[in-house]
Amino acid sequence: MTIATFPPEPPPPANWSRYLGFSTDAKVIGIQYIVTAFFFFLIGGLLAMVIRGELITPAADLVDRSVYNGIYTMHGTIMLFLFIFPVLNGLNNLLIPTMIGAPDMAFPRLNTAAFWLVPVFGLLLIGSFFVPGGPAAAGWWSYPPVSIQNPLGHLINGEAMWILAVALSGVSSIMGAVNFVTTILRMRAPGMTLFRMPVFCWTALAAQSLQLIGLPALTGGAVMLLMDLSFGTSFYRPEGGGDPVLYQHFFWFYSHPAVYVIILPVFGIFSELFPVYSRKPLFGYVYVALASFIIVGLGLIVWVHHMFPSGVAQWMRDLFMATTMLIAVPTGVKVFAWLGTLWGGKLRLTTPMLFCIGGLVNFVFAGITGVMLATVPVDIHVSNTYFVVGHFHYVIYGAAVMGIFAAIYHWFPKFTGRMPYEGLGKLHCLLTFAGANLNFLPMHPLGLMGMPRRVSSYDPEFAFWNVLASLGAFLLGVSIIPFLLNMISSWIRGPRATHNPWNAIGLEWLLPSPPPEDNFGEEVPTVISRPYGYGSGEPLVEHQVEIERRLQLQEAAA
Amino acid sequence: MSSSLPVTAPQSDKPHGHINHNLTGFIIFLCSESVIFLAFFSGYAILKTSALDWLPPGVEGLEWRTPLLNTAVLISSSGTIMLAEHYKARDKLWLFRGFWLLTMLMGVYFLIGQAVEWHGLAFGFTAGTFGGTFYLLTGFHGLHVATGILLMTIMLIKSFIPGNYAGGEQGVQATSLFWHFVDVIWIILFVLIYVWQ
Amino acid sequence: MNSSAPSSINRTAVLGLSIWVGVLVLLSHWMGRQALHWLPVPASNAAPLVDGLFSLETAIGTFVFGAVLSVLVWVLLFNRAEKYDESDAVPIEGNTRLEVIWTAIPLVLVMAIAVDAMRVNHRLGVLGPMEHIHAHSPIEMAGGYAADRLPPEQIEVIARQWSWEFRYSGRNVSSTELHLPVNQPVSFRLSSDDVLHGFYIPAFRLKQDVIPGRAIDFNLTPTREGRYRLRDSQFSGTWFAANQADVVVESPEAHAAWLNQAAAQPLQSGLSLAVQEYTARQQRPHPGWATVPPAPPPQVNVPGSADLPHDA
């Protein structure tokens, strides 16, 4: 390696049109995923506004009940398959190669294909609103027999399009998973052993392993559902000898691990950001890394906790209650590790840090209600009520989405070359935290009082908490405005970012902002120490001083 | 001081001399693919054990002798593909191609046998859970056999391109792995459907 | 931040921490008691068990949440970097003993909760089995149930899109309003004519999915007189939210009188809000998206009321 040629020259100013094409550069694909995801986030959010608009009064007086059911079904489906999974894949694309010193993903063209499936099945889902009969309206779980009733009897119907879209989403995700896992296992920089790898890559590896193991089960179950819906088979039709509960097993065998696919990267984000903004190493890095895989293992054997009232045997309920409760242990290890990182640190309350702290608070709350839901006698009372809706929105919005926002603000300078505006960011954070808590906390008393979920109307005694929840939802709607304004104006004309505006330790911060197409190219630095070496004074890589100096010279010259 | 250039593994004609990770990716994909078969297998088992009238009316059971012969052919084809690779490793390309083609023909024989069996059955796809799971399992497997034959065809054609193996023979290895996978799946399927009656 | 000798810093810290932990314990205990108010009035013998478990978990949860929040508030107050201080903090990488402690304690805690819950589970099992018998099973066909738990009265519950029908098979009475005698164990036989439904009575803290193709035996004992709501809890289509019924728990005498009266009444259409709304809906030029038409209202002796106030 010759110092004179490293780091690579910064790229010429980017051309916006490459984000509309079939680039194979993971950094372009990452942005494509993220922007597409947020487009669908807005659509899903709009649907949420209709839901909360309906539920602000007890009667079903805003939209017809059939319309409400289609809307809540598509809200869940869009938020999960068109927002959360794509945005996380976007972060994977941006962060994995740069964090491990790889030039790109292992299979760049597969990467492009995986991304472009997203707008395809996105169009399929949006299109389903316009076919006769309307979109799928049986909830994002699509339980038979109600999901295969097909009232109009058409071959092309909302439910069929839903199943196809979910199947395509699965194909896209598996393509991504093969790519991410191969890249992490095979393309790390010299000297970067697994235990010198950033936690974000550990959690990505864990999450993508879950995708590989779980998704085919969903696909199998969905194929059988489609056969029942469209070709007259009876896998789940009782009249033909089928079993509706069999579908639930297939569905949840994937969909429970799916929630870990969502939260593990967020654990990774927290693990990356808390050290930077406390100027302290991650407490117990090895344990945090290993806990990710304990969560993978346990996460595959808890799915029946979504089915406690469905009539499964008592021994099954006891077993799955025990396994579900066990997951609290490795999760707790991570939470305590983050607290240990913060303790005695030198905290900087930047926007990313505030999002992480808010996300952590919401996550701990959600974890507590999660243990309650794991408890069978309590679950018998609150399952399928708003208690569950409150719980999972605390995890998804309160923790995961806040973590994703933290990641976006934190790595925005790296991949766009511009700094986001702090004031707008803090405003976004405040409105998000307030809105999320106002929206989702009231759902818990509603569930305890016995209000079922997925209802288009409710008894009058539930009105008070529903009004609060709806107000919170509208506040969340408003909270997106500073975010969008910030992203657009900062990218176009925010102050230029240096290679390491946060003074963070990591391979990605040894690249220019934004990095060149092949990142480090041929000249990947050799990693010589563990990550998060704050306060130790040790360099992360060989020749680090020269690398930093070279970057500074480039920035001064620009 | 280590460089980032690999020193051992064969290079493909990719830029920067990067190692080709195709085989790793393919193996990971195969592991994932096996789960969908596991899902169908467990669905079959659960529906069979909890059903009261498993077989459709008028159906006494499945004829197993011809399928057993087809199974023997398919299993042997795993042997022939291994032989083909054996000759490839010794650079005996024509023997490689011969055994490779033989494997493909045995695969085609299997598929034809499957089609003949389907044609002669007294029950259809919609004949209760038995009909549904039988055709789903054998059909999905048949699809994989067809895919394997297609992959083998492509590899066979590419074997005539000069310099094809300069970057390694991951395509041949991956196809062969896929073929063994399809074979193992069939063995489980055969035991599940034809033996466990 | 130095003051006097290290030993007195430790003593102050330990004392302060103990007081704070004490505060958290009191707060948690109080929250546990409050939790009981968040639940509907307890009306079955399962309710006190469920409520007790929920209250315990609320108390433990409050303590955990309070502890985490305390740490966060502390670091936000006392561990902020000075305004222009870009330097690093002390490089503490971990502490194996702490790792062991904060793995072992949560493990013991959740397993203790799980064991307690399993015990409650089994007691609930004694009260209401929640087993299912596969449709067409020999026991089913003989019209019976596991002999050792043959209840005094079995009520057939038929869930449809979108109504609830209750048949008192022994008395030849049917209704769309469930009447139960207080303090007497009752057994239900849950079945569905079409799709999945959920038999959920929040006041009883009990819920069971109703699965088409199966008849599920479900036992419980109401313990408080009053009028309660039965709500469909498993999404069942367009009028899912309207698929509710009232549950009247009354004295055994009142119950017997009701049954006698009901037996004398002619069959009439039972309650089904879905049917009413569907008829109105069909008049509209753009009714909405596709829907399965509701099943006709069950023909019953006693429709019951949809407008009386309920306790929970």
User: Helicity of chain C, in percent?
Assistant: 25-40%
What multimeric state do the chains show? heterotrimer
- What fraction of residues of chain A sit in β-strands? under 5%
Q: Round the mean pLDDT of chain C to the nearest integer and report it.
A: 89
CATH C-level label of chain A: Mainly Alpha
Q: CATH superfamily name of chain A?
A: Cytochrome c oxidase-like, subunit I domain
Q: How far is the first residue's CA from the last residue's CA of chain C?
A: 57 Å
Largest sheet of chain A: none
List the strand order in the largest sheet of chain C.
1-9-6-2-3-4
| Whole-number count of domains of chain C | 2
- What CATH architecture label of chain A applies? Up-down Bundle
Low-pLDDT stretches of chain C: 127-150
Major beta-sheet overview of chain C: 6 strands, mixed
Helicity level of chain A: 55-70%
Q: Tell me the radius of gyration of chain A.
A: 24 Å
Radius of gyration of chain C in whole Å, from Cα? Answer: 28 Å
Mean pLDDT figure of chain A: 95
Total count of helical runs of at least 4 residues of chain A? 16
Short characterization:
With 558 residues, chain A is mostly helical. Chain A has 16 helices and no strands.
Structure, described:
The complex is a heterotrimer of chains A (558), B (197) and C (312). Chain A is an all-alpha fold. Helices cover 64% and strands 0% of the residues of chain A. Chain A has 16 helices and no strands. In chain A, helix 6 (244-278) runs parallel beside helix 9. Mean pLDDT of chain A is 95; it is low at 1-5. Chain B is elongated. Chain B starts with 21 loop residues before the first helix and ends with a helix. Mean pLDDT of chain B is 88; it is low at 1-17. With 312 residues, chain C is of the alpha+beta class. Chain C has a six-stranded mixed sheet with strand order 1-9-6-2-3-4. Chains in contact: A-B, A-C. At the A-C interface, helix 2, helix 6, helix 7, helix 8 and helix 9 of A face helix 2, helix 3, strand 8 and strand 10 of C.
Topology:
The complex is a heterotrimer of chains A (558), B (197) and C (312).
Chain A (H helix, E strand, L loop, with lengths): L25 H29 L10 H36 L7 H20 L30 H29 L12 H33 L12 H35 L6 H15 L14 H13 L1 H15 L8 H24 L1 H7 L3 H31 L5 H19 L2 H7 L13 H31 L50 H14 L1
Helix pairs in contact in A: 1-2, 1-3, 1-15, 2-3, 2-4, 2-12, 3-4, 4-5, 5-6, 5-7, 6-7, 6-9, 6-10, 6-12, 7-9, 10-12, 10-13, 12-13, 12-14, 13-15
Chain B lengths: L21 H29 L14 H25 L3 H28 L7 H31 L11 H26 L2
Helix pairs in contact in B: 1-4, 1-5, 2-3, 2-5, 3-4, 4-5
Chain C lengths: L5 H30 L11 H32 L17 H32 L3 E4 L3 H4 L12 E7 L2 E6 L4 E3 L2 E4 L4 E7 L4 E5 L4 E5 L3 E7 L5 E7 L11 E7 L1 H13 L3 E2 L3 H11 L15 E2 L12
Parallel strand pairs in C: 2-6, 5-11
Antiparallel strand pairs in C: 1-9, 2-3, 3-4, 6-9, 7-8, 7-10, 10-11, 12-13
Helix pairs in contact in C: 1-2, 2-3
